[in-house]
Known about the structure:
Blueprint: H1 3-12, H2 14-23, H3 27-32, H4 49-55, E1 77-81, E2 97-101, E3 107-110, E4 115-125, E5 132-144, E6 147-154, E7 156-157, H5 159-165, E8 171-178, E9 183-187, E10 192-198, H6 231-236, E11 260-264, E12 287-292, E13 300-307, E14 310-316, E15 333-343, E16 360-377, E17 380-387, E18 402-405
Antiparallel strand pairs: 1-2, 2-10, 3-9, 4-5, 4-8, 5-6, 6-10, 7-9, 11-12, 11-18, 12-13, 13-14, 14-15, 15-16, 16-17, 17-18
Helix pairs in contact: 1-2
Amino acid sequence: SGEEECISFCLDNRGRCESYCNSNENELCAIIFPPEQPGSEGKREYKNILDQDWSHGKCEGSGTVNFGVSPMSPDDILVLIPMGDMIGSHVTPIDHLYLYPIKPRLVNIYAPANGTIVYIAAADIAVGTGESIPRTYTVVIEHTCEFYTLLGLLDDLSPKIKEKTGIIKEQVHVRIPITQGEILGNIEENSLDYNVFYTQASPKQWIFPEHYTELGKKFIVDPFDYYIEPVKSMLLEKNLRTVPPLGGKFDHDIDGTLSGTWFEENTNWYEGVSDTKSRYGPYWKTHISFSPDPVDPSGFVISLGDFNGEARQFGAKGNSPKPKDVKVSSTPTLYELVEKGYVDPSGKPWTFSATVHGLRMDLGSQVQGVVLVQMLEDRKIKFEAFPEKTASQVSGFTENAKIYER
């Protein structure tokens, strides 16, 4: 939107800006990246987009590494939530693990393997809502040019890291060698966000991967595939999910069916339409998803970016029809929305007080509303939500219905 903002962005995202400027004519490019003088070294080459944005072309090594240390001591973990959860403004299935500490307790966060810290971000605004929050930190570790880990929502950084970085206003690019098991910082109030990225990962189950523009999202892999014993078993003891893939899954598109994520047409797909009042924007308001529950995949979640003005998640009364069975039809499918929770193997409600294996999705009886959805084409649906209505009160679409695409 202007020279000052563009320069600020490119200072922190040099790889992406250089890539753009190498193939586009833009007067700001000549200011940010002046033409090279005779005898200069030439333009830097990058191994991949993660090397561009995080390692700034300085990454070393290739392939994957084994993890020998849990990012949070298993003794400090109350429960581990796998990838694929949908909650609040996380309308599409979440692409990282959550490690919840036993509270109230200050817990250390550790490097899972040897590597180099290459990027640290500080945030005091909640992504998605724009609300002010206590400052948290995200740390990215380069293990090789192809393999990175991200540990987010740290309340504080280790003295060694703070000595190297000084005060972090928003984000810094560094090269701080760390060893497996070294303390990165600590968490007291938050859960830990945990991602593993591998640039040679198998393609995601998205119909249009290019519509998911978040950096590195397509490279995210299951962390449990890289843990060695006995740490792997200790972490799995804290994991609510017991069916493969054990780390969960966040890509559920099945072409020609309702299953997976949809975006309101003409709203810029996953990135959404920016809100001029917030640098983050309510991108999630134009998302909906019909995806399996992350803990009990036999159940599914209807996740809505805008249900009566709020992002909400529901189960479907009767847990039917399954989204993978809903296909192109001349008539709409009606779902009655009910609250969802979990019960343990004995049928007792689970209250998030401890890890329990064998949880089953539990659906409430009180209908909270209705959604109508009709597959017009393999990759296009008509959709409308009816808050506080029941099936008998909804006879068809109204002028408020919208079209969603993949």
